Amino acid sequence: MNYFIGLDSGGTFMKAALIDSRGHQLAIAKVSAQIINGQQGWVERELNALWFDAKTAITKLLDKVAIDPSDIKGISISAQGKGAYLLDKDGNDLRNGILSSDSRSIELVKQWQAEGIPEKIYPLTLQTLWTGHPVSIVRWLKDNEPDNYQRLGAILMSHDYLRYRLTGDISAELTNISESNFFNANTGQYDAKLLKIFGIEECWDALPKVIKSDQLAGYIRDDVAEETGLHSGTPVFGGLFDVVSTAICSGINSDQQSLNYVMGTWAVTSGIASVAKPQDNHRYVYGHYVADKQYIVHEASPTSASNYEWFVDYLGEGGSFDHEDNQALVSALPVAESELLFVPFLYGSNMGLGIKSGFYGLQAHHTKGHLIQAIWEGILFCHNLHLERMRIRFPSATLLTVTGGSTSSSVWMQMLADLTGMTLEIPELEETGSLGAALIAMVGAGQYDNIEQGLQSMSIQSKRVEPNQEHYQKYQKKYQQYLRLVNLFNAFEESK
User: Which of 204, 266, 276, 324 has its CA 20 to 30 A from that of 495?
Assistant: First the structure.
């Protein structure tokens, strides 16, 4: 039997999973991610700490299994997209990594919006423009840390950085770099015109070569093997954007009958298309998919389950949630009848730059259950905004495949089905990020000819959740109230 490791670098955990060639997860190890919030809007990681987390997860994984490391035929990484993980000209860490949920460049992005830059670049990049994009972060670096900007040697994303530490190879993986705003969607290459638009022409030489997801990037180095227990020379493949990884495992394809919801740190709605439509009224994000000549089309914002997890110290007992108790509290309440509303913008907004999070309508009679219900509803309302836009692009979609830790809550999933009026399909997978990465390694190593063949051999099971149509109108009414409230929040922010 051949084995593969899928490393999943997320906003909450670093995970390493050992998966056999039939898709069975034999073991998994998790390490809590170390995030630095040094200033308002700043979300960083110390790069050596990120690398230490990855090594620790791999070491713990190998300690759990009794296999010869030489039987591990490939490693790949699924990771958060965008952000910036920077090396200097000597290949050393330049500064802390900056995550995609960082908003330090907000004033710069507002200026670009006022100048019409998003409209100017969209036909070239098929990307929107916001604070977490590498171009925004690099321009902020030029304006605020000029010494670091002068020493900039390589612009990487999270999985690119980890792959570099594993192998010594400096490269940028296609599914992630295609959404950087450095990349011209029409030519499939970096575009110097884009760098000139953003005023960062000097960083052209810091853009690494581009590799595909299943392309061999390098091999485990001797020193890494000694530190982790891996076999020196184990192949390491390109990897992929975690949104792509979950889309693969969800089973969606270009038939446009289904969309994928990711409920994690980010609220993401994705579909697969063979044709880009830059002429659409809405600027959809188009990224390269793992299949040739296909795009992953998505809407996203950092407005999902991380907003719920933030309340652990406030609503939990002893610093942790009891999810079963919370479900019971919410299920005991009438559906969508509370006037309490929660705006889940702790890490960013999907309705305007700079809008803050908060509750509205809080009264003395409200209980812990009401607060949790409002948080869950607010997160679903953020997802629903993305879904409404995506259903214009994919009008035939009737099925939502849902992935992420939130799928373990049957109450929350029923709320989602009732709000959208759509059937949910929930893959029975513990870790879609790790499996997607391992599957890419299998294809790269020649275990399977392509992703589709690998998925067919794995026979992933799913469960369905049907909507309660009697609750649909109640949720839609409260959703409209939520939209009016956020518009007021936006107007207040703009009036400052």
Answer: 266
| Residues 216 and 96 grouped into a single domain | yes
pLDDT exceeds 60 at position 348: yes
- Under 8 Å between Cβ of 288 and 244: no
Residue 217 and residue 329 in one domain = no
Decide if 143 contacts 84 (C-beta within 8 A): no
pLDDT digit string, tens, across residues 256-311: 789 999 998 889 999 999 988 887 788 999 999 998 889 999 998 989 998 998 88
Phi/psi of residue 89, each to 5°?
A: -70, -15
Number of domains in the chain: 2
**In a shared domain, residues 174 and 283:** no
- The tally of CA atoms less than 13 A away on the side-chain side of residue 114 is 7
Residue 355 domain boundaries: 250-427+466-496
In angstroms, the CA 433 to CA 445 distance is: 19
Distance CA 103, CA 42 (A): 6
Global pTM?
Answer: 0.88
CATH of the domain at 114: 3.30.420.40
Would you say residue 451 lies in a domain?
A: no
Q: Are residues 414 and 326 in the same domain?
A: yes
Same domain flag for 288 and 234: no
Whether the per-residue pLDDT at 399 is higher than 70: the answer is yes
The two structure tokens encoding residue 285:
């994000």
Q: Which helix (H) or strand (E) holds 473?
A: helix 469-494
In a domain, 224, yes or no: yes
Asked whether the predicted pLDDT for residue 484 surpasses 90, the reply is yes
Model pLDDT for residues 99-137, shown as the tens digit of each residue: 998 999 999 999 999 999 999 999 999 999 989 999 999
Q: Which of 383, 357, 337 has its CA nearest to residue 478?
A: 337
* Backbone torsions φ then ψ of 73, nearest 5 degrees: -95, 0
Contacts of 186 (CB under 8 A, 6+ apart): 124
